[in-house]
């Protein structure tokens, strides 16, 4: 379902993220249950989590809005595809953007940077994260398309 139609149907029950993301993945529309990673210029937890079964979930990564380093690239995103993740929403940067566009995966991020991030694994998994005026809670349902990112609370 289109995000605009969801807003019309659910009104104030739907949370709408104000962040103006760019599209990077080969899938422009995607949806799924929310899983989260909170990290800053360190993609160790992102890489680790995307190597596990995704079960159609969307990984929301709060990178603190930093575009100084990329939190995912083609290899990590390919791992997400192999493991059944529906998409990624990254409050940060990606790299390998031409390769990402070829993957059957939804990817939204702030921008690009060819610089690698650290891999120490600092951060937290499946915690509530907030950006764009909304809080992303693990288990909520996320819909994304060219118009934006919206969330329905878990029932």
Automatic annotation (TrEMBL):
Top-level taxon: Bacteria
Cofactor dependency: a divalent metal cation; Mg(2+)
GO molecular function, one term: 4-hydroxy-4-methyl-2-oxoglutarate aldolase activity
GO annotation (BP), single: regulation of RNA metabolic process
Positions that bind substrate: 73-76, 95
Class in the EC hierarchy, top level: lyase
Binding site for Mg(2+): 96
Reactions that this protein is recorded to catalyse: 4-hydroxy-4-methyl-2-oxoglutarate = 2 pyruvate; oxaloacetate + H(+) = pyruvate + CO2
EC number(s) stated in the UniProt entry for this protein: 4.1.1.112, 4.1.3.17
Keyword terms: Lyase, Magnesium, Metal-binding
Pfam families for this protein: RraA-like
Record's function text: Catalyzes the aldol cleavage of 4-hydroxy-4-methyl-2-oxoglutarate (HMG) into 2 molecules of pyruvate. Also contains a secondary oxaloacetate (OAA) decarboxylase activity due to the common pyruvate enolate transition state formed following C-C bond cleavage in the retro-aldol and decarboxylation reactions.
PANTHER family: 4-HYDROXY-4-METHYL-2-OXOGLUTARATE ALDOLASE 3-RELATED (PTHR33254)
Known partners and oligomeric status: Homotrimer.
Family: Belongs to the class II aldolase/RraA-like family.
Protein's recorded name: 4-hydroxy-4-methyl-2-oxoglutarate aldolase
UniProt source species: Saccharomonospora viridis (strain ATCC 15386 / DSM 43017 / JCM 3036 / CCUG 5913 / NBRC 12207 / NCIMB 9602 / P101)
């Amino acid at each position: 379902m289109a995000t605009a139609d969801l807003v019309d149907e659910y009104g104030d029950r739907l949370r709408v993220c104000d962040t103006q993301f760019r599209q990077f993945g080969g899938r422009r529309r995607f949806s799924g249950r929310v899983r989260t990673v909170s990290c800053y210029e360190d993609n160790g937890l992102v890489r680790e989590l995307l190597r596990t079964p995704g079960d159609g979930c969307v990984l929301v990564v709060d990178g603190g809005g930093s575009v100084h380093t990329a939190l995912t690239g083609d290899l990590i995103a390919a791992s997400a595809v192999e493991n059944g993740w529906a998409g990624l929403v990254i409050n940060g940067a990606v790299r390998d953007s031409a390769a990402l566009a070829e993957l059957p995966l939804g990817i939204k991020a702030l921008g690009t940077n060819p610089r690698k991030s650290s891999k120490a694994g600092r951060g937290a998994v499946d915690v509530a994260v907030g950006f764009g005026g909304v809080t992303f809670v693990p288990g909520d349902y996320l819909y994304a398309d060219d118009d934006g990112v919206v969330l329905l609370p878990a029932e």
